[in-house]
Amino acid sequence: MDFLRLERRLGETTTAREPEKKHDNQTVGCESQAIESYLAADIHAMSRGLVSKTRYFGQSHWMNGIFKAMLELFENQSKDAKSEATAVLNRCKALARRIKAQRNPGIINKLGTNIPLREIADKLVDGYLRTIETVFRVLHVPSFRRDYEQYWAAPDSVGLPFVIQLQLVMAIGCTIYDETFSMRKSAVQWVTEAQYWLLGPPAKGKLTITGIQIMALLTLARETAAVGGDLVWIHVGSLLRSAFYMGLHRDPSRLPKMSRLDAEVRRRLWNTILELELKTSIDSGGYPSISPDTSDTRAPANLDDTDLMQDNEPTNTKAGERFTDMSMVLALRDSFRERLAIYQMLNATPFRGTYDDTIRLHRRLMTAFKTLTNKLKSYSSSPRQPTSFQCRFVEVMVRRCLLSLHLPYLGPGLKEPGFSFSRKQVTELAVKMYRIIFPSACLLSACPLIPADDDLEGLSTEGDDLARFAICSAGFWRILSSQSAMIAALELQTTIQEDEGIGPPTLRPDLLSILRHSLLFYVSRIKAGETNVKGYLFTTALAGHVQALMGGLEGSQVLEPVLNAAMKTEKICFDLLKQQLESMECAEAGMGDNQFDWDSLMGVGDEWGDSTGVMSTFYDVSSVECFLGPNGTFDFMPPSMSY
Q: What angle, rounded to 10 degrees, do the helices at 559-587 and 534-550 form?
């Protein structure tokens, strides 16, 4: 009976209420409903947005849409189930809290004293310079390398601002240093020190080019090292206003005369700030507060960094004629207006768009994307070509925008043929992006859908900077991979349930490969220091259900393989988190009484008992109706939708 009441309550709260009145495609009034959040907070469903705790998430935030309904169901079931499964989750949370506490650097009395050996620092710096710096230009690399060599020759000869800058560069480089993010604790300390430095006096002394570079690097480092990465949009607001204060929004030709190097660095920084503001507003579900029209700063020149060392005009510098240090940045910049228009429509309050607007913006962005790809292809015959990391990174940035555009219509597309185009786009984009990030995903087509215990060695990312970056870093890379996996599982589930044939349904091998690969992705993330295990548990439950349906099981027979897969995953998560904490405590000198109390943790039910009866509701993912609600409607459906 408790489960029936829970199911009825979830069905009521995930069904959108009709707006009171409509006038000129605008909502005059809309009731909000309170539902329990999987984040353990009250959520008020609104038109195209929701509130969790004290934060408002617009439509582009990952938690909106069908994923919210899926994860809310999971969380409410886990709270309602009085089983060993809940106890294990609580144990995992206790371990996660302890791990995070171990990473906290505590009170920092002196900045810039945690620099590693030169051999390690070189690898960290090179990792950053060959990856993120090639897409989000922050530094003038020759100048940075000059100061870097000076630091190692005489550490006291460089100022503290450069040391903070260097530490942030190394913090970002840590994400691709190795597959386990072994230097995560150092990265967290370097990010924390940069925050201390920015808060310290004098405030006006931070309004320099170096200060702006540090703020931009801090934006990237906070996301990659997971130091308040979900709040980084607030920091970018400070970065943006600091840039305004320094006049970066004005073209250097309209300011007092300066060198070519200074002028181009200012143009590059302003372009990067625009990209960071757009990116972080997307991640936070906020309305972008900037556009190219608020500035008269010209696009950066298509020049190598070495060309800026001389004031005379270099020859053969027209954009598109040769591949330079700025070519990828300029290629991405060409689609900025189209990406901005999409996120402005998604996160506008009140929402005024229609499905026709969605199709129109889709066409605009695809035209810009085609121009971008043609430009990159034109470099194929040049002596210097873009790297795999650069091409894949830029493509994911654009395709992610298309995914955000169509994702609000995924739920309706599962039920209504009128939105089948968006359903198809979401599925294809999820497949494409996942394979861009992890090309090895297509190699798992012959493997079992749920790997055996001895197959949990994690993913090998040797020689693949983007795949390693996606596994080790936080921010939207983690969300993109998780979204793609859940979309693949949901499409497989729907395809099986929609099939009315006599024989077994024909399932897409690429979707099965992504679902298989995603489970190894989650394992790799936990081994790299991730402490949140719910995504892994939920995706395993979905995979177990798909595997059961593929095996021809029906009714109550489907439950057993789902429960077995979920319980095995819980044990894996607990063991991986335990290994993390043990290795951290072994590395710490003089822990003594501060070591974790394992006996108290294992006090409740030392055995992994069989609790199939009470777990029958814990991983109930047996039907798409669980996510769509009884009427198949959503609280995020735009009131003015037309087709």
A: 150
